[in-house]
Design goal:
By secondary structure, the protein is α+β, with helices and mostly antiparallel strands. It folds into 3 domains: 193 residues, no CATH class; 160 residues, no CATH class; 119 residues, Arc Repressor Mutant, subunit A (Orthogonal Bundle). The chain contains 17 helices and 17 strands.
Length: 532
């Protein structure tokens, strides 16, 4: 019989890992302080670094942009406040025919961290001190069609220190490479629905790195109106790229979209606790303590009929959704590389890509395990009946529905034991909590007895020369299966059988209807008495 997990194993027609959205920050390291700005103005020939000069340079750049647009027939638009820029630009992209060029230039007044001057008077001498403050200034959006990256844009701040933002998409880059190499494919929005050679497609996705990104930036820096001229660059004022936001995705396309959606909805149901600290610690391989910033939680967002699953670690976000009713998309978005022990320089993109892929894989592996917990009849009998091991040791039964056994299984499903294993003390505390007991009421001797029968049943194994234990693959299946049975069947069934226990009104009404229907079925059968 096909299980939900079999769908993911056997009914996926394409499985691709790729960098998705890449949002970069371009900054000039030699123009981050007031003194560096003064040096920049002086090398430009301004003896007195007056703030009026910054205004003149801004106006000069505005004229250069207008002249560039007029010379190349590029439309200039001003974005209205609150407008979604990509929607406005979409119509211009549809009409753009060349393989490469500037599609449209957009202008928007936005907040920036710029320099503001304060006058300083010393006798007859007047000077200016600059400090970084929040300002509202014009930003120029250059929406591009690139031969290698496809749709992209570069945003240039018109005011010092002239920061830029670069937005690229790894899937669009891969599509352009496929077109150049003659590799046939079908698109799935900013992803792939199918490909003639999936292995070659994955190899193409793996090629994208800092070199390609730097080449893109260098090319358009030479073609667009730019804030730095050759003299500035010779004086040491050059741009450096850093990672502002990076999305790393895995797309698994299902042969049957109905089965794929069933799998994803089952994933949501079984992973509402994915944001717990112990699970986050495993997914990200980062220790979570009380001092770790951020709130660890899971969110299920419903947009129309399409739900999505979200989990968070510091400023990193993991998202799962069913893309265009055809593919499971798992995305890890890193908003601050320093959360993972590296700086933001573009040179660290390969490390971040490896990290993002590992997080996606660990989440999917954990979800597969949650569905791969079916036991054979023999395995179930071995579990619930007393047995004897090959070396003659008696293994007591683990009876279904027994509170202590159910608490043990629920405790074993915790992800916090995966990195370093479990001990008598750590497992005892959790089992006591699940039983609603004080730790003194569930003794260390009782825990030792439970650990022994778990070991003899093959559910855990002892790490040599230690008092730590790890779950076996069989043990994880057992723990997950019994924990699910306890949550979804035993508790509900026992509550229904307990007449003294108050039931929720809808459940009580439904049970009463079932009981009445059975009575009616028996009465309507009208079985005649058998004559003796």
């Amino acid at each position: 019989m096909t299980t939900i997990n079999d769908i993911l194993k056997e009914h996926v027609t394409l499985d691709i890992e790729c960098i998705d959205r890449l949002y970069l920050n371009g900054y000039i390291p030699q123009m981050q302080t007031g003194g560096q700005l003064v040096r920049f103005l002086q090398q430009r020939g301004y003896a007195i670094p007056s703030p009026a000069i910054l205004g003149q340079l801004t106006q000069q750049y505005k004229r250069e942009v207008e002249q560039f647009a007029a010379a190349h027939g590029i439309p200039i638009i001003r974005f209205e406040r609150g407008a979604r820029k990509e929607d406005v630009v979409a119509a211009y992209r549809e009409r753009f025919a060349p393989a490469e060029g500037v599609v449209v230039i957009g202008i928007a007044q936005e907040k920036a961290n710029g320099f503001k001057a304060s006058k300083r008077v010393q006798g007859k001498h007047v000077g200016f001190d600059y400090s970084r403050q929040s300002l509202f200034v014009n930003h120029y959006y250059f929406y591009l069609q690139d031969a290698d990256f496809g749709p992209a844009f570069i945003k240039v701040c018109s005011y010092a220190p002239y920061t830029v933002k670069v937005c690229l998409n790894g899937h669009e880059w891969a599509k352009q490479q496929c077109r150049q190499r003659g590799l046939a494919f079908e698109s799935l929005d900013n992803g792939f629905l199918s490909c003639a050679d999936p292995e070659q497609l994955q190899a193409i996705c793996d090629e994208l790195g800092p070199e390609q990104v730097k080449a893109f930036f260098t090319k358009w820096q030479a073609r667009l109106p730019w804030r730095l001229n050759p003299t500035d660059q010779q004086a040491g004022f050059r741009y450096r790229l850093s990672v502002w936001q990076a999305e790393f995705s895995r797309t698994q396309v299902f042969a049957d979209s109905v089965q794929g959606r069933q799998w994803f909805e089952a994933v949501i149901r079984d992973n509402l606790d994915v944001g717990r600290p112990d699970r986050i610690q495993v997914l990200f391989e980062r220790r979570v303590t009380k001092a770790t910033p951020g709130t660890f939680r899971t969110r299920v967002v419903q947009e129309g009929v399409s739900p999505s699953l979200h989990a968070y670690y510091k400023q990193t976000h993991v998202k799962q959704y069913f893309k265009e009713q055809r593919a499971l998309r798992t995305e890890t978005t890193i908003n601050n590389p320093k959360d993972h022990g590296v700086n933001k320089d573009i040179a660290n993109l390969p490390f971040l890509q490896q990290l993002g892929r590992q997080i996606n894989r660990r989440l999917l592996d954990a979800q597969r395990v949650s569905f791969d917990c079916v036991l054979s009849t023999h395995s179930l009998q071995r579990l619930v009946q007393p047995t004897v091991t090959n070396d003659g040791q008696r293994a007591p039964a683990l009876r279904l529905g027994e509170p202590r056994v159910m608490a043990l299984c629920n405790a074993l499903t915790s992800f916090e034991y995966l990195p370093h294993g479990l001990t008598n003390q750590t497992l005892r505390q959790r089992v006591a909590d699940l039983l609603g007991l004080d730790p003194t009421q569930y003794t260390a001797a009782q825990m030792s007895y439970d650990l022994r029968r778990l070991r003899l049943k093959g559910i855990i194994w002892r790490i040599p020369q230690s008092y730590r234990y790890q779950l076996t693959s069989y043990g994880r299946k057992v723990a997950l299966l019994l924990a699910k049975l306890d949550a979804r069947i035993f508790r509900c069934a026992f509550a229904a059988l307990d007449e003294a226990a108050p039931l929720p009104v809808p459940l009580a009404q439904a049970l009463a209807q079932v009981e009445q229907a059975i009575d009616d079925l028996v009465n309507n059968a009208r079985i005649a008495d058998v004559a003796v």
